[in-house]
Amino acid sequence: MSSSRRGRSLHEDWLAVLVGLVLVLLAGLGFLSRVPWPLFGWLG
Amino acid sequence: MNTPRGAVRWIVGLVLLAALAVLVAELDAGIAGAFLRRGVAQNPLEYPLVAVLVGLLVNALLRATKTHEAVRPVLRTEFFLKVGLVLMAAGLNIGVIMRQGAGGLLQALVLVTSVFLFTWWAATRMKLPEQLKAVMAAAVSICGVSAAIAAAGAVLAKRKDVTYVTALVIVTALPLMVLMPWLARAMGLSDVVAGAWFGGNIDTTAAVVGAGTLHGAAAQEVASVVKMAQNALIGVAAFLLATYFVVKVERKPSERPSAVMIWDRFPKFILGFVLVSVLASIGVLSGGAVSVLKGLSKWAFTLAFLSIGMELSLRELGSLGWRPVAVYLTATVFNTVVALGAAWVIFGVLGM
Prior knowledge:
heterodimer; A: mainly alpha; B: 352 residues; globular
Protein backbone atom coordinates (compact mmCIF):
# COMPACT_ATOMS: atom_id res chain seq x y z
CA MET A 1 0.00 0.00 0.00
CA SER A 2 1.07 3.57 -0.60
CA SER A 3 3.13 5.49 1.94
CA SER A 4 0.66 8.37 1.70
CA ARG A 5 -2.17 6.08 2.76
CA ARG A 6 -0.08 4.75 5.61
CA GLY A 7 0.82 8.28 6.67
CA ARG A 8 -2.81 9.39 6.71
CA SER A 9 -3.69 6.26 8.65
CA LEU A 10 -1.13 7.15 11.32
CA HIS A 11 -2.53 10.67 11.73
CA GLU A 12 -6.03 9.28 11.89
CA ASP A 13 -4.96 6.75 14.53
CA TRP A 14 -3.64 9.40 16.90
CA LEU A 15 -6.54 11.75 16.20
CA ALA A 16 -8.99 8.91 16.93
CA VAL A 17 -7.22 8.22 20.22
CA LEU A 18 -7.34 11.93 21.09
CA VAL A 19 -11.03 12.34 20.21
CA GLY A 20 -11.90 9.13 22.03
CA LEU A 21 -10.05 10.10 25.20
CA VAL A 22 -11.59 13.59 25.20
CA LEU A 23 -15.06 12.03 24.98
CA VAL A 24 -14.15 9.54 27.74
CA LEU A 25 -12.98 12.45 29.92
CA LEU A 26 -16.18 14.41 29.27
CA ALA A 27 -18.32 11.34 29.95
CA GLY A 28 -16.33 10.49 33.07
CA LEU A 29 -16.81 13.99 34.44
CA GLY A 30 -20.52 13.70 33.82
CA PHE A 31 -20.81 16.49 31.25
CA LEU A 32 -22.21 14.39 28.42
CA SER A 33 -24.98 12.84 30.48
CA ARG A 34 -26.34 16.37 31.08
CA VAL A 35 -26.74 16.98 27.33
CA PRO A 36 -30.36 16.42 26.20
CA TRP A 37 -29.47 13.85 23.56
CA PRO A 38 -32.10 12.59 21.15
CA LEU A 39 -31.94 9.24 22.80
CA PHE A 40 -33.32 6.77 20.25
CA GLY A 41 -32.37 4.25 22.93
CA TRP A 42 -28.71 4.74 22.09
CA LEU A 43 -27.54 7.05 24.83
CA GLY A 44 -28.08 7.27 28.56
CA MET B 1 -10.98 22.55 2.71
CA ASN B 2 -8.74 25.46 1.74
CA THR B 3 -11.36 27.67 0.12
CA PRO B 4 -14.71 29.04 1.26
CA ARG B 5 -16.35 26.71 -1.27
CA GLY B 6 -14.48 23.77 0.21
CA ALA B 7 -15.56 24.78 3.71
CA VAL B 8 -19.20 24.98 2.59
CA ARG B 9 -18.94 21.49 1.08
CA TRP B 10 -17.55 20.16 4.36
CA ILE B 11 -20.38 21.70 6.36
CA VAL B 12 -23.05 20.49 3.97
CA GLY B 13 -21.51 17.02 3.92
CA LEU B 14 -21.33 16.83 7.72
CA VAL B 15 -24.93 17.99 8.11
CA LEU B 16 -26.06 15.37 5.58
CA LEU B 17 -24.07 12.64 7.33
CA ALA B 18 -25.47 13.64 10.73
CA ALA B 19 -29.03 13.65 9.38
CA LEU B 20 -28.53 10.22 7.83
CA ALA B 21 -27.16 8.91 11.14
CA VAL B 22 -30.34 10.08 12.86
CA LEU B 23 -32.37 8.33 10.13
CA VAL B 24 -30.46 5.09 10.74
CA ALA B 25 -31.07 5.42 14.49
CA GLU B 26 -34.80 5.83 13.86
CA LEU B 27 -34.89 2.85 11.49
CA ASP B 28 -32.93 0.75 13.99
CA ALA B 29 -35.38 1.64 16.75
CA GLY B 30 -38.31 0.79 14.48
CA ILE B 31 -36.87 -2.57 13.41
CA ALA B 32 -35.96 -3.37 17.02
CA GLY B 33 -39.55 -2.61 18.03
CA ALA B 34 -40.86 -4.99 15.40
CA PHE B 35 -38.61 -7.79 16.68
CA LEU B 36 -39.47 -7.00 20.29
CA ARG B 37 -43.13 -7.53 19.50
CA ARG B 38 -42.12 -10.98 18.31
CA GLY B 39 -40.26 -11.75 21.55
CA VAL B 40 -36.70 -11.00 20.38
CA ALA B 41 -34.97 -8.60 22.78
CA GLN B 42 -32.53 -6.90 20.39
CA ASN B 43 -32.49 -6.02 16.71
CA PRO B 44 -30.54 -8.87 15.10
CA LEU B 45 -30.36 -7.04 11.78
CA GLU B 46 -27.79 -4.74 13.42
CA TYR B 47 -27.52 -1.05 12.73
CA PRO B 48 -24.26 -1.34 10.65
CA LEU B 49 -26.20 -3.22 7.99
CA VAL B 50 -29.00 -0.64 8.05
CA ALA B 51 -26.39 2.13 7.81
CA VAL B 52 -24.69 0.53 4.80
CA LEU B 53 -28.02 0.07 3.03
CA VAL B 54 -29.02 3.69 3.66
CA GLY B 55 -25.56 4.77 2.53
CA LEU B 56 -25.88 2.76 -0.68
CA LEU B 57 -29.23 4.37 -1.44
CA VAL B 58 -27.85 7.86 -0.89
CA ASN B 59 -24.77 6.87 -2.92
CA ALA B 60 -26.99 6.05 -5.89
CA LEU B 61 -28.94 9.30 -5.54
CA LEU B 62 -25.80 11.42 -5.28
CA ARG B 63 -24.21 9.75 -8.29
CA ALA B 64 -27.39 10.12 -10.32
CA THR B 65 -27.46 13.85 -9.54
CA LYS B 66 -23.68 14.15 -10.02
CA THR B 67 -23.24 15.61 -6.51
CA HIS B 68 -21.28 12.70 -5.05
CA GLU B 69 -17.89 14.42 -5.24
CA ALA B 70 -19.21 17.28 -3.10
CA VAL B 71 -19.65 15.05 -0.02
CA ARG B 72 -16.64 12.76 -0.48
CA PRO B 73 -14.32 14.82 1.79
CA VAL B 74 -16.41 14.06 4.91
CA LEU B 75 -16.61 10.32 4.30
CA ARG B 76 -13.82 9.47 6.76
CA THR B 77 -14.66 5.81 7.22
CA GLU B 78 -11.46 4.73 8.91
CA PHE B 79 -11.43 7.67 11.32
CA PHE B 80 -15.02 7.03 12.43
CA LEU B 81 -14.30 3.31 12.84
CA LYS B 82 -11.27 3.98 15.02
CA VAL B 83 -13.08 6.46 17.26
CA GLY B 84 -15.92 3.95 17.60
CA LEU B 85 -13.54 1.20 18.67
CA VAL B 86 -11.80 3.38 21.27
CA LEU B 87 -15.17 4.31 22.77
CA MET B 88 -16.48 0.74 22.57
CA ALA B 89 -13.73 -0.36 24.96
CA ALA B 90 -15.63 1.39 27.77
CA GLY B 91 -17.92 -1.65 27.81
CA LEU B 92 -15.02 -4.05 28.27
CA ASN B 93 -14.53 -4.78 31.97
CA ILE B 94 -11.65 -7.20 32.46
CA GLY B 95 -12.56 -7.43 36.14
CA VAL B 96 -15.98 -8.84 35.32
CA ILE B 97 -14.41 -11.40 33.02
CA MET B 98 -11.95 -12.53 35.70
CA ARG B 99 -14.56 -12.59 38.47
CA GLN B 100 -16.89 -14.76 36.43
CA GLY B 101 -14.13 -17.35 36.32
CA ALA B 102 -11.35 -18.39 34.01
CA GLY B 103 -13.66 -20.57 31.91
CA GLY B 104 -14.68 -17.77 29.57
CA LEU B 105 -11.11 -16.67 28.98
CA LEU B 106 -9.90 -20.24 28.45
CA GLN B 107 -12.68 -20.92 25.97
CA ALA B 108 -11.92 -17.64 24.21
CA LEU B 109 -8.24 -18.54 23.83
CA VAL B 110 -9.02 -22.04 22.53
CA LEU B 111 -11.71 -20.89 20.13
CA VAL B 112 -10.04 -17.76 18.80
CA THR B 113 -6.77 -19.58 18.10
CA SER B 114 -8.29 -22.64 16.44
CA VAL B 115 -10.96 -20.84 14.43
CA PHE B 116 -8.59 -18.07 13.33
CA LEU B 117 -6.01 -20.56 12.07
CA PHE B 118 -8.65 -22.72 10.36
CA THR B 119 -10.18 -19.72 8.61
CA TRP B 120 -6.75 -18.51 7.53
CA TRP B 121 -5.95 -21.95 6.12
CA ALA B 122 -9.29 -22.19 4.28
CA ALA B 123 -8.89 -18.67 2.89
CA THR B 124 -5.36 -19.48 1.73
CA ARG B 125 -6.64 -22.59 -0.06
CA MET B 126 -9.24 -20.44 -1.79
CA LYS B 127 -6.55 -17.90 -2.71
CA LEU B 128 -8.19 -14.91 -1.00
CA PRO B 129 -6.12 -11.70 -0.77
CA GLU B 130 -4.04 -11.36 2.43
CA GLN B 131 -5.95 -8.38 3.85
CA LEU B 132 -9.34 -10.03 3.29
CA LYS B 133 -8.04 -13.20 4.97
CA ALA B 134 -7.04 -11.18 8.03
CA VAL B 135 -10.36 -9.34 8.30
CA MET B 136 -12.41 -12.49 7.79
CA ALA B 137 -10.40 -14.67 10.18
CA ALA B 138 -10.63 -12.00 12.89
CA ALA B 139 -14.35 -11.54 12.35
CA VAL B 140 -15.35 -15.19 12.50
CA SER B 141 -12.99 -16.18 15.31
CA ILE B 142 -13.25 -13.21 17.68
CA CYS B 143 -16.38 -11.12 17.63
CA GLY B 144 -17.72 -10.21 14.24
CA VAL B 145 -17.87 -6.58 13.14
CA SER B 146 -15.67 -5.05 15.86
CA ALA B 147 -12.88 -7.54 15.24
CA ALA B 148 -13.18 -7.02 11.48
CA ILE B 149 -12.74 -3.28 12.00
CA ALA B 150 -9.71 -3.71 14.27
CA ALA B 151 -8.08 -6.19 11.89
CA ALA B 152 -8.78 -3.94 8.91
CA GLY B 153 -6.99 -1.13 10.71
CA ALA B 154 -4.02 -3.36 11.51
CA VAL B 155 -3.55 -4.57 7.94
CA LEU B 156 -4.87 -1.49 6.08
CA ALA B 157 -7.54 -3.55 4.38
CA LYS B 158 -9.75 -2.13 1.67
CA ARG B 159 -13.15 -0.80 2.71
CA LYS B 160 -14.92 -3.31 0.50
CA ASP B 161 -13.29 -6.08 2.56
CA VAL B 162 -14.81 -4.66 5.76
CA THR B 163 -18.21 -4.23 4.11
CA TYR B 164 -18.24 -7.72 2.62
CA VAL B 165 -17.25 -9.37 5.89
CA THR B 166 -19.69 -7.22 7.90
CA ALA B 167 -22.55 -8.35 5.67
CA LEU B 168 -21.49 -12.00 6.04
CA VAL B 169 -21.26 -11.68 9.83
CA ILE B 170 -24.75 -10.26 10.17
CA VAL B 171 -26.39 -12.57 7.66
CA THR B 172 -24.94 -15.76 9.21
CA ALA B 173 -25.68 -14.62 12.77
CA LEU B 174 -29.42 -14.43 12.06
CA PRO B 175 -30.13 -18.12 11.42
CA LEU B 176 -27.70 -19.12 14.18
CA MET B 177 -29.61 -16.97 16.65
CA VAL B 178 -32.73 -19.08 16.00
CA LEU B 179 -31.12 -22.45 15.30
CA MET B 180 -28.69 -22.70 18.20
CA PRO B 181 -31.19 -22.37 21.07
CA TRP B 182 -33.34 -25.02 19.38
CA LEU B 183 -30.35 -27.35 19.01
CA ALA B 184 -29.26 -26.66 22.58
CA ARG B 185 -32.66 -27.77 23.86
CA ALA B 186 -32.72 -30.78 21.53
CA MET B 187 -29.31 -31.88 22.85
CA GLY B 188 -30.34 -31.23 26.46
CA LEU B 189 -27.51 -28.79 27.14
CA SER B 190 -27.43 -27.10 30.52
CA ASP B 191 -28.04 -23.32 30.59
CA VAL B 192 -24.36 -22.66 31.31
CA VAL B 193 -23.02 -24.84 28.48
CA ALA B 194 -25.64 -23.47 26.08
CA GLY B 195 -24.76 -19.87 26.96
CA ALA B 196 -21.04 -20.56 26.56
CA TRP B 197 -21.77 -22.12 23.16
CA PHE B 198 -23.81 -19.10 22.01
CA GLY B 199 -21.20 -16.60 23.20
CA GLY B 200 -18.35 -18.51 21.62
CA ASN B 201 -20.00 -18.93 18.26
CA ILE B 202 -22.49 -16.22 17.32
CA ASP B 203 -20.58 -13.23 16.04
CA THR B 204 -22.86 -10.33 16.82
CA THR B 205 -23.71 -9.09 20.29
CA ALA B 206 -27.37 -8.61 19.44
CA ALA B 207 -27.67 -12.18 18.23
CA VAL B 208 -25.93 -13.46 21.38
CA VAL B 209 -28.46 -11.59 23.48
CA GLY B 210 -31.26 -12.85 21.27
CA ALA B 211 -30.19 -16.48 21.58
CA GLY B 212 -29.78 -16.11 25.30
CA THR B 213 -33.22 -14.54 25.56
CA LEU B 214 -34.79 -17.38 23.63
CA HIS B 215 -33.03 -19.97 25.79
CA GLY B 216 -33.11 -18.31 29.20
CA ALA B 217 -31.61 -15.62 31.45
CA ALA B 218 -28.86 -17.87 32.82
CA ALA B 219 -27.70 -18.74 29.30
CA GLN B 220 -27.75 -15.08 28.29
CA GLU B 221 -25.57 -14.06 31.22
CA VAL B 222 -22.94 -16.71 30.42
CA ALA B 223 -23.13 -15.87 26.70
CA SER B 224 -22.49 -12.19 27.39
CA VAL B 225 -19.46 -12.88 29.59
CA VAL B 226 -17.96 -15.33 27.08
CA LYS B 227 -18.50 -12.79 24.29
CA MET B 228 -16.81 -10.09 26.40
CA ALA B 229 -13.84 -12.40 26.99
CA GLN B 230 -13.46 -12.82 23.22
CA ASN B 231 -13.76 -9.06 22.68
CA ALA B 232 -10.83 -8.58 25.07
CA LEU B 233 -8.60 -10.37 22.55
CA ILE B 234 -9.16 -7.72 19.85
CA GLY B 235 -6.05 -5.80 20.87
CA VAL B 236 -3.89 -8.94 20.92
CA ALA B 237 -5.14 -9.95 17.48
CA ALA B 238 -4.48 -6.49 16.06
CA PHE B 239 -0.92 -6.53 17.39
CA LEU B 240 -0.18 -10.01 16.02
CA LEU B 241 -1.67 -9.18 12.62
CA ALA B 242 0.33 -5.96 12.36
CA THR B 243 3.49 -7.90 13.26
CA TYR B 244 2.74 -10.63 10.70
CA PHE B 245 2.12 -8.14 7.92
CA VAL B 246 5.37 -6.28 8.66
CA VAL B 247 7.49 -9.41 9.01
CA LYS B 248 6.01 -11.51 6.21
CA VAL B 249 3.47 -9.96 3.89
CA GLU B 250 4.83 -6.48 3.19
CA ARG B 251 8.50 -7.11 3.75
CA LYS B 252 10.79 -6.24 0.87
CA PRO B 253 13.48 -8.84 0.06
CA SER B 254 16.35 -6.62 1.19
CA GLU B 255 14.52 -5.34 4.27
CA ARG B 256 15.07 -6.62 7.78
CA PRO B 257 12.03 -6.30 10.08
CA SER B 258 12.68 -4.40 13.28
CA ALA B 259 10.79 -3.47 16.44
CA VAL B 260 10.58 0.10 15.10
CA MET B 261 8.90 -1.15 11.93
CA ILE B 262 6.41 -3.22 13.93
CA TRP B 263 5.69 -0.23 16.19
CA ASP B 264 5.31 1.96 13.12
CA ARG B 265 2.81 -0.49 11.69
CA PHE B 266 0.91 -1.18 14.89
CA PRO B 267 -2.52 0.49 14.77
CA LYS B 268 -2.16 3.21 17.41
CA PHE B 269 -5.88 3.45 18.02
CA ILE B 270 -5.59 0.03 19.75
CA LEU B 271 -3.62 1.85 22.46
CA GLY B 272 -6.69 4.00 23.05
CA PHE B 273 -8.84 0.86 23.06
CA VAL B 274 -6.65 -0.78 25.70
CA LEU B 275 -6.40 2.38 27.82
CA VAL B 276 -10.17 2.92 27.89
CA SER B 277 -10.81 -0.74 28.75
CA VAL B 278 -8.31 -0.44 31.62
CA LEU B 279 -10.11 2.68 32.88
CA ALA B 280 -13.43 0.82 32.72
CA SER B 281 -11.96 -2.24 34.42
CA ILE B 282 -10.50 -0.37 37.40
CA GLY B 283 -13.82 1.42 37.97
CA VAL B 284 -12.82 4.97 36.96
CA LEU B 285 -15.88 5.24 34.70
CA SER B 286 -19.32 5.21 36.29
CA GLY B 287 -22.14 3.10 34.91
CA GLY B 288 -23.73 6.21 33.44
CA ALA B 289 -20.48 7.23 31.71
CA VAL B 290 -20.05 3.73 30.25
CA SER B 291 -23.59 3.81 28.95
CA VAL B 292 -23.04 7.18 27.25
CA LEU B 293 -19.75 6.04 25.72
CA LYS B 294 -21.29 2.86 24.37
CA GLY B 295 -23.97 4.97 22.77
CA LEU B 296 -21.41 7.37 21.26
CA SER B 297 -19.54 4.35 19.94
CA LYS B 298 -22.69 3.33 18.07
CA TRP B 299 -22.98 6.80 16.57
CA ALA B 300 -19.34 6.66 15.42
CA PHE B 301 -19.85 3.23 13.84
CA THR B 302 -23.04 4.47 12.19
CA LEU B 303 -21.14 7.35 10.58
CA ALA B 304 -18.49 4.87 9.47
CA PHE B 305 -20.90 2.42 7.87
CA LEU B 306 -22.88 5.22 6.27
CA SER B 307 -19.61 6.41 4.75
CA ILE B 308 -18.85 2.89 3.53
CA GLY B 309 -22.24 2.68 1.83
CA MET B 310 -21.89 6.15 0.34
CA GLU B 311 -18.49 5.36 -1.14
CA LEU B 312 -19.06 1.80 -2.18
CA SER B 313 -19.34 0.52 -5.67
CA LEU B 314 -21.50 -2.62 -5.84
CA ARG B 315 -19.54 -3.71 -8.86
CA GLU B 316 -16.39 -3.56 -6.74
CA LEU B 317 -18.06 -5.63 -4.04
CA GLY B 318 -19.27 -8.17 -6.59
CA SER B 319 -15.74 -8.48 -7.92
CA LEU B 320 -14.81 -10.36 -4.74
CA GLY B 321 -16.86 -13.28 -6.04
CA TRP B 322 -18.24 -16.34 -4.25
CA ARG B 323 -15.04 -17.67 -2.67
CA PRO B 324 -15.15 -15.42 0.45
CA VAL B 325 -18.71 -16.61 1.09
CA ALA B 326 -17.63 -20.24 0.83
CA VAL B 327 -14.72 -19.67 3.22
CA TYR B 328 -16.87 -17.79 5.71
CA LEU B 329 -19.61 -20.41 5.76
CA THR B 330 -17.10 -23.24 6.16
CA ALA B 331 -15.39 -21.37 8.99
CA THR B 332 -18.74 -20.73 10.67
CA VAL B 333 -19.58 -24.45 10.65
CA PHE B 334 -16.13 -25.20 12.09
CA ASN B 335 -16.64 -22.51 14.75
CA THR B 336 -20.04 -23.94 15.68
CA VAL B 337 -18.71 -27.45 16.20
CA VAL B 338 -15.52 -26.43 18.04
CA ALA B 339 -17.41 -23.97 20.24
CA LEU B 340 -19.83 -26.71 21.26
CA GLY B 341 -16.97 -29.03 22.17
CA ALA B 342 -15.09 -26.32 24.07
CA ALA B 343 -18.20 -25.18 25.98
CA TRP B 344 -19.12 -28.74 26.89
CA VAL B 345 -15.63 -29.60 28.16
CA ILE B 346 -14.80 -26.31 29.94
CA PHE B 347 -18.20 -25.44 31.42
CA GLY B 348 -19.75 -28.92 31.54
CA VAL B 349 -17.10 -31.53 32.29
CA LEU B 350 -14.57 -29.29 34.09
CA GLY B 351 -17.25 -27.02 35.59
CA MET B 352 -15.11 -23.86 35.31
